[in-house]
């Protein structure tokens, strides 16, 4: 008897990846628009153009929210923040002003969507401890990535006198959070990405240098 060989179809793999992307994009849009309680698996399936069984096969609703947040954080590229091109450019920029400018560009680009999905996540976390635990882990990773940037900024010319890298990291982590972005857009829903980026750049310059 011939040994059983595993079968791998590039076309099938590509279709599976496309289905996953469609489900996650639909989940992001619906969670952002309707929150956690207002989003159903059936609605995600309908928006993605797939069978509801495909949505359940990918993840539970709680896990789908977690994946939707991760997709928002990585701009739909499945790339971790620390590997984002703009983040890496900010880390390696020639001077601190350029570093802060690029970090502002990155924060501005992600602000609106991050605020929307994170608001849904926090609402869900209040009702589900597994979601709350996943949220805490997400925030731990965000602080870790923030510290990478702050350490690079400090190495490029130092921080404001008396400000340590750890304290500065927490300053950036708490300033560049979803609620701050949400307030900015609540104040002016028509804000564009560039104005939000400029706000982050100016605020962090005042706080850190």
Helix and strand topology:
Blueprint: H1 10-34, H2 41-48, H3 52-58, H4 61-73, H5 85-92, H6 96-125, H7 129-155, H8 165-175, H9 178-187, H10 193-208
Helix pairs in contact: 1-2, 1-4, 1-6, 2-3, 4-6, 4-7, 5-6, 5-7, 6-7, 6-9, 6-10, 7-8, 8-10
List keywords for this structure.
209 residues; mainly alpha; 10 helices; 74% helix; elongated
Write up what this structure looks like.
With 209 residues, this protein is mainly alpha-helical. It has 10 helices and no strands. It has helices at residues 10-34, 41-48, 52-58, 61-73, 85-92, 96-125, 129-155, 165-175, 178-187, 193-208. The longest helix is centred in the middle third of the chain and has 30 residues, at 96-125.
